[in-house]
Amino acid sequence: MADEGLRPIIVKRIKKGGGGHHGGAWKIAYADFVTAMMAFFLLMWLLGSTAKGDLQGIAEYFKTPLKVAMSGGSGSGDSSSLVQGGGKDLTRKDGQVKKGDDPEMKKTYNLQAAHLKEAQQELERAELARLRSLKTRIEEAIEARPALRQFKSQLLIDITTDGLRIQIVDEQNRPMFALARAELQPYTKDILYEIGRALNDMPNRVSLSGHTDATPYANGEKGYSNWELSADRANASRRALLAGGMDESKVLRVVGLSSAVLFDKENPLNPINRRISIIVMNRKAEESALKDGSTIEVQAASQVKPDIGSTVAKPEPVK
């Protein structure tokens, strides 16, 4: 019995061979492989079923995505957003069409046109500032010379849609021209000399027009009439401006309008209707005048609102 307590205990350990469990890493690799193969076959299917025009649009989009999205064109789709919409028709060439009863207008962004418009507006603002500066200079020159200051009431200076307009009008006892003739009075020459020097500093072209009242010229219907008289007075004013220093190339038009455009419509015989109108044209009016067969609308002085900063008073009609 004592020998049984000393019997050794034997523990057998069994070592297992290969072929055991390797984990699940192979499943992840296999899934990636299957996904890649699906993506590859999907790409091949899309390339085979997409029209040539769509392929060009897709290629252009990935080259310059922002340009295609904003300017539109082949392959850009119907949406104006940077993210293009979808569509069922894969054979179309000129973008995608949205289904619906009312056709939706396609929005386009023309950056070049926007820059041109902004530049044009800036040029117009700068030109308007120059014309206002010229208006101030002429008014100051008249105020500085006592010989011209007394004729201030006969000078109407305002800014119209065609540019800066300077009108020299008659008064009852102080006409700008000799009676029924195109001969300038000495003080009229002094005024035109001063205006000619000021206009020569501006790059703008000039239009001259002569006006008369409604008093018919003697034998005007058969011979010399108010039409010839107004044209001759406008041309005499042109010569005076040139004598004052204005460059001859600045004159674009010299016309006689007779009594067709009256200053005082209620009183056609009012001396104020006898006047010379000098327009320093803005770029828009100049381009319109240079077009073949174009006409410029001539408005009566009473129909045009003066510039807000105008300080020259309109003379009262002579009774």
From TrEMBL:
Cross-referenced CDD domains: OmpA_C-like
Domain OmpA-like residues, every copy: 164-284
Coiled-coil region(s): 106-136
Bilayer topology term: Single-pass membrane protein
Bias kind Basic and acidic residues: ranges: 89-103
Cellular localization per UniProt: Cell membrane
Organism superkingdom: Bacteria
InterPro entries: Bact_OuterMem_StrucFunc, MotB-like_N_dom, OmpA-like, OmpA-like_sf
SUPFAM superfamilies assigned to the protein according to its UniProt record, in alphabetical order: OmpA-like
UniProt xrefs under NCBIfam families: PRK09041.1 (NF006548)
Family classification: Belongs to the MotB family.
Protein name: Flagellar motor protein MotB
Lineage: Bacteria, Pseudomonadati, Pseudomonadota, Betaproteobacteria, Burkholderiales
